[in-house]
Design brief:
Helices cover about 40% and strands about 20% of the residues. It is of the alpha+beta class and about 200 residues long.
Length: about 200
């Protein structure tokens, strides 16, 4: 059944906004235009910028289905662990493409093993930034093979500037957001749940 691949890509709008503010403050500081209070405020905000992969996902409503699935599979502690992990995180819209009855069944205690397999099919050991994935694709002549924590493989290729993942069943998913940093890895959001076969 379904299994999850490369690390769960979860993007928090709040996290991204804080990162953008931090960059603006850094840029302005370099030009000598930051007010004293602004620098202090940014320093206080910095520790909240990064959370674990699970924390980032929990902070973004677009990943509420993923968070529910991770909780049902008891993977929260694992994906909050040291890592590092690369997570290709399906958004709520990606999960909405899965048959509703199938998804509901996967969330039952009886299907916990199948759900765990599906979710870990979206996770790759190690930290792979978008640049790392693009380089692997180039080095492999156009299609890179990524081995997931579940043990299956995902094929990564480029479609213009977008990375496309092909699962074991031949289904394809496009990476829609890249390089969402977490303390224990990186998240890339995807538009379709990948299936292990």
């Amino acid at each position: 059944m379904m299994r999850i691949h490369s690390k769960i890509l979860l993007a928090s709008a709040a996290t991204l906004a804080l990162a953008a503010c931090a960059q603006e403050a850094t840029d302005a500081s370099a030009e000598g235009t930051v007010e004293e209070g602004a620098t202090d405020a940014m320093a206080a905000a910095e520790p909240a910028e990064l959370a674990t992969i699970v924390g980032v996902a929990q902070g973004n409503e677009n990943f509420s289905t993923l968070v529910t699935a991770v909780t049902a599979a008891d993977l929260g502690e694992t994906l909050s662990g040291e890592g590092p992990f690369t997570v290709f995180a399906p958004t709520n819209d990606a999960f909405a493409k899965v048959d509703a009855d199938t998804l509901s069944e996967l969330l039952t205690p009886e299907k916990k093993d199948d759900l765990t397999a599906l979710l870990t099919y979206h996770v790759v050991a190690g930290k792979l930034t978008a640049a790392d994935v693009a380089k692997a694709i180039t080095d492999a002549g156009g299609t890179a093979t990524l081995t997931t924590v579940q043990g299956g493989e995902l094929k990564a290729s480029m479609d213009g500037e977008n990375v496309v993942l092909e699962d074991a069943a031949g289904g394809k998913s496009t990476v829609t957001m890249v390089d969402v940093e977490a303390t224990n890895g990186v998240i890339h959001a995807i538009d379709t749940v990948v299936m292990p076969g």
